[in-house]
Amino acid sequence: MADADAAIRLTDTDAALARLSAVQKRYLEDPFVKHLVPRAHLQPPRAPLINIGTFVRTTAIDDLVFRWLQTSASEGTRCQIVSLGAGSDTRFWRIATGAHKDALATYIELDFPEITTKKAMAIRKSKELSAVLKEVKVSHGGTGIASSNYHLLPADIRLPPDAALAHHLPSDILSPILPTLLLFECVLVYMAPESSAAVLRWFVERQTGPLGSIVYEMFRLQDSFGRVMVENLKARNVSLPGAAPYPSMESLPTRFTSVGFSAAQALTLKDIRKSYIPTSELERIAHLELVDEIEELELVLDHYAITWGIRAPPERVWGQWGL
Ligand code: SAM
């Protein structure tokens, strides 16, 4: 179990290196990522297929997050974001210094203590990262960070939420009333489906205001390409118990609707790249690197999906993507 958890934690290094590479190759703009990746300037770039996948995933999730922030602002309120299994993600810094910063009340990140300790150290070491935090204090014996607009919390989110989440998220950290957005970016696939459902149900029951959630993950793992993905991860001691109940596009939204969300929708990265990324952006990235394996790219992107769900009165819509 301990080894399996270490292998799961290592997936954060993959995600961080992919983000760094997409920034180095100018797919994405992110001045913060280099402060969260050790020896960032020495890291070699990743393959073009990985850069494009990271670009599509990040652009799409950013878009959903920004729409959620905009909707909260248009309702005259601010919103809170909780990122579970946040790893070395930089989204908080990008939001808190970006066009929607006034719509953000607080941003909370949870991950295993080994990951949050490293992140807390990187934040303390970097002027660029710590300057964005307001009234910052080290918490949880150095494994966390507390500030008025950002919290970094050490937690295993598989533990029963009434103990783990309730302990870490009292009302003065996470308001039960404000609009709340939950992010699970490549996380739930590593957990048993019952644990993920328990986490979602805990938030559905606790939050009385509008609740949204975005899940990004791999799926379609039964086909031949999917089986190769599973085998590659198995060779690294990573298993994917969370993927089993969501083998198809139709099944993905049930992750939300089965635990009390009112509506949910899913799209593959392949469909998002084709139909939702602005043409101007696709033209821009087409000039960055030579990609001749378009079929392979589409095959990879077809095995990753973004699913988002909302629990809110029917008049609260998410934005042009349909909810
Ligand atoms: N969300 C980040 C991103 O997209 O860059 C990191 C993704 S990484 C693939 C998965 C992260 O989930 C790792 O940081 C890992 O430690 C975290 N994680 C997985 N299972 C977890 C659990 N049970 N409790 C807390 N964190 C977990």
Automatic annotation (TrEMBL):
Top-level taxon: Eukaryota
Keyword terms of this UniProt record: Methyltransferase, S-adenosyl-L-methionine, Transferase
Pfam families: LCM
Reaction catalyzed: [phosphatase 2A protein]-C-terminal L-leucine + S-adenosyl-L-methionine = [phosphatase 2A protein]-C-terminal L-leucine methyl ester + S-adenosyl-L-homocysteine
InterPro entries: LCMT1, Ppm1/Ppm2/Tcmp, SAM-dependent_MTases_sf
Enzyme class: transferase
Transmembrane segments: none
EC number: 2.1.1.233
Transferase is among the record's keywords: yes
Keyword Methyltransferase: yes
Family: Belongs to the methyltransferase superfamily. LCMT family.
Role: Methylates the carboxyl group of the C-terminal leucine residue of protein phosphatase 2A catalytic subunits to form alpha-leucine ester residues.
Identification of the protein by name: Leucine carboxyl methyltransferase 1
Organism annotation: Mycena chlorophos
